[in-house]
Amino acid sequence: MSTRLVAARLMTARLLRRRRGWWAAGLLGGLGAFLALTGLASAHQGIPPGQTPLTAWGITTNPLPSLLLLGALYLYVNGLNNWPNPSHRVNRWQRASFIAGIAVLFAALQSPIEPLAEHYFSIHQAQHLLVRMVGPLLILLGAPLTPMLRGMPIWMRQGMVRPIVRRRAARWVYGRITNPVFTILAFLGLLFFWQIPGPHDMAVHNDYIHEVMHGTMLASGFLFWWVIIDPKPRQSRLHYGLRILYLGLIVLPNTLLGAAITFQEGIIYAAYQELPRPWEGMTHITDQRLGGLMLWVPGDMMCVISAGIVMMMWYSREMAENPNPPMPVPAEPAGDADDSGDAGQ
Hints:
By secondary structure, the chain is mainly alpha-helical. It has a domain at about 65-80 and about 100-150 and about 180-270 and about 280-320. It is built from 15 helices and no strands. The chain has helices spanning about 5-40, 65-80, 90-110, 115, 120-140, 145-150, 155-165, 170-175, 180-195, 195-205, 205-230, 240-250, 250-260, 285-320, 335-345. Helix 10 crosses helix 11 (about 205-230) and helix 12 (about 240-250) packs antiparallel against helix 14 (about 285-320). It is globular.
């Protein structure tokens, strides 16, 4: 077989693989868009008629979050299985943390929490806490970067991810959106924006705006924790002491916002008064105050717990870099030296 014929066949095979890759990418994109539009077409009506809070699962009306979460879980597990000589270990607790994060986001977006959040402000705030703080933190603690990249098909990793990463504009955008100043402003700014009565009520009424609310909160949560957690092999640009300060900066605004809602005497959000409630024993003002407390107390506690995690990471890093620090030599008391001098005389 001639060299030219071999080269032609190799080139043809490459073109076919690339074409199949782009066809697959287009098919996946079209499927995702169809599912998104299918989910967004349904209006937010809370628990459907004839269902109970135990049977009203969001997966029946909008399966897109479930498909995305299952896809992320598949990439993570597949990447771990196809990583024979790992450059850094992903231990059991990290794997459990990633799976727990996926489960938390599934519970927040697909379980009965999703339809109940349209009836109760307090449940809505609990949902936001899971989406903004708990889920992203647990997923990033699972060190997902390398496993998910290795879990991708070759055509996706080489034909889509690599060209994007190599672009200067993409690296510029990445540097700006992971800047600690931007991440904390986005995290707090979106929290305050979606608590304004106008945008909040619109999100409860309109399905599309509700999805935008969840998407922006989820993205800001990942960016916020990305600066604090070191999802290997990536290293945060912040020193551990600055990360603790970074966490402390959000406590006061979070406390002020939660307290302002908790101690408000009138109804702030009118959207929750329009749908019948499964449990009528809770008044709207009590529900609103519970929502303010949910925003206030667990949010602050998450910062305190995360600061403890950062301190443990700091200690582990110091011990890894200097496992046997020199013990300080005790200085002799000045009085003993004077006494020895007098004895010599």
